[in-house]
Amino acid sequence: MTRRTLTAVALAAAAALALAGCTAGGDGQAAGPSAEGYVTDGKLTIGTGQPAYFPWVIDDAPESGEGFESAVAYAVADELGFTKDDVVWVRSTFEQAIAPGPKDFDFNLQQFSITDERKQAVDFSSPYYETTQVVVTVDASPAAGATTIAELKPFKIGAQTGTTSLTAVEQTIAPEGGAQIFNTNDDAKLALQSGTVDAIVVDLPTAFYLTGAELDGGKIIGQLPSTGGGDQFGLVLAKDSPLTEKVTAAVDALRENGTLDELAAKWLGGDDTAPVLK
């Protein structure tokens, strides 16, 4: 092979490598978005946690459409014109998803509260869910059999100071002995475990975590009626993503037509999760 031929081959190989680096993220960064703004043309790439937990995703299988956030993701996909077969799932940690820089997803959902600080690094859609306050107890507590707000009034019920949870205890439950106030949710949890209080009030994500991972015999009695003021969850997109407006419009449509409320009632408010107390 001549030197000229060798040079031509080398140049062609270099060009191919350069092209691969630009399109496939060869330096470890996420690939650049398509001309239409999507990570992959003709596909909607959705990120969630590793693992993804009940009841947001059932059995850590977001592709099933089972669980509140999995169902919301597919509803958004449908609004954007994608079929279920067009959806590709990827995994990330919570911190990776909200860190500055390129993303390997079009949007990510794993209970991201919308905050001004996070908006400096990523975009958010409009909210698809606002957290409610939830009454938590343990099986051994005398409050474990309560099914209504009225039935909770005789019990000792606590919450962390300075929170919407404490406001909910004081204004919605109004226990006969007054609210039991703690410096932190950990202090409230320990008081519940020791029997110092009969129940505590926390936000919904914290309630699922406490009963699923931290409390021995933990039990959700139910959600208190929403009075606003909870954390709002939004879909996370790359900063200045060309898709932010489209995704927000999709979420807005699902809110206005009642789909988000229906999905929340099905996956977050059922008798086996956190029924709404009356």
From TrEMBL:
Q: Which UniProt keywords apply?
A: Signal
* Residues in Ionotropic glutamate receptor C-terminal domain copies: 43-270
Q: Does the keyword Signal apply?
A: yes
Looking up Pfam families in the UniProt record yields: SBP_bac_3
All residue ranges annotated as the Solute-binding protein family 3/N-terminal domain in the record:
43-271
Origin superkingdom:
Bacteria
Give the signal peptide range: 1-20
| Protein name stated in the entry | Transporter substrate-binding domain-containing protein
Native organism: Agromyces soli
